Amino acid sequence: MTSGRCAGPRNGSRSARRQRNAGPGATASRRRGHERPLQPATTQPEPHPPPGGTPGAASTNEPALGTRTDRRTPQSARLNLPRDPAPRGRHPPGPSRPATREPIRRYEHPHPGDLVHVDIKKLGNIPDGGGWRTQGRARGNLNRTATAGHHTDAWGGTRLGYAYLHTAIDDHSRLAYTEILHDERQDTAAAFRQRAHAWFSSSGITVRRVLTDNGSCYKSRLWHDTCTQLGVTVKTRPYRPQTNGNVERFHRTMTDEWAYAKPYRSETARRAALPAWLHAYNHHRHHTALGGPPASRVPNLWAEQLVPGVSTYACWIIRRRTSGPTAAI
Asked: Which of 78, 128, 212, 302 has the lowest CB atom count within 10 Å?
């Protein structure tokens, strides 16, 4: 018996019977309480192929020795960061599974300004010298401590605060307006709504309805009063992020292509890069659902891009012809 257990007379006779029936060299690898058919042991092991592969039988599906498949995301590959391992229980790579069994319903309002999605995205501030994503944990913690304006929590951790990105995006054209503010209180959100309304008006878009989630600032009386003064109807659907999906997807694109697209050395450098990226998104970046940039669905913005230096009078003529006497697109 090669087993580490103490074998009695009954176990010994059973093992001997298995040895006689299966032949010499057989092993009794089975789970307790379940019989398994035994196979005779092979006298010679199968030869292993050489490192370069068997001549004449090279496989084209497997990578060559010394190379490895880069399974990182495009963001991690650009920053030369390691791949984030998938947590246990996550489904294998492939088409994403639907979150619910409900059918996918896509909608799009026919005119700009019919509906504007509003939401807030919170990002952690970057310390001076770079954060832990690019510098590592040790250097990142030192940079956090050395950054001016930080505070310490009750457990001794260094806190740099957050950047609150308030975004308003048009449902029809996907034209987006974003500001980085210091909090998400009701007065801050109401002031942002006024500035966003003025920005859309300067682009020739009259906002008629606003869609938000059930955040505390959007449920406040100040928010509803501000929208009423601007002549905007407020619609809120709680616990339904799919309804506000345009701004949710925009925030994901913004974090991939701006917030974490390069190793910023400070929060000031990252914030300084936002206006240029936002202009590229609105005027130059090709949108899959639109067949062009968002400005292509706003006539006066698209005319200014196609003909640089076009006069204000020409933009006014285009707006009048496309929107009618009310100048509402």
From this structure: 78
| DSSP labels, 286-305 | PBTTTTB-GGGGSHHHHHHH
User: What gap in Å lies between CA 277 and CA 91, rounded to an integer?
Assistant: 34
Q: Are residues 125 and 160 in contact, defined by beta-carbon separation less than 8 angstroms? A: yes
In the DSSP assignment, the letter for residue 112 is: T
Strand duo 116-124 + 162-170: pairing: antiparallel
pLDDT tens by residue, 118-132: 999 999 898 888 887
Neighbours of 216 (CB within 10 A): 11
Tens-digit pLDDT profile for residues 295-313: 988 877 765 555 444 444 4
DSSP 3-state assignment of 250?
helix
Global pTM exceeds 0.70: no
The distance of Cα 157 from the centroid of its chain, to the nearest Å, equals: 27
Q: Which of 294, 295, 299 is nearest to 315 (CA)?
A: 299
Per mean pLDDT, which of 3-7, 77-81, 101-105, 207-211 is the most reliable?
Answer: 207-211
- Measure the CA–CA gap between 114 and 322, rounded to whole angstroms: 15
51-55, 125-129, 218-222: range with highest mean pLDDT: 218-222
Residue pair 264/257 in contact by the 8 Å Cβ criterion: no
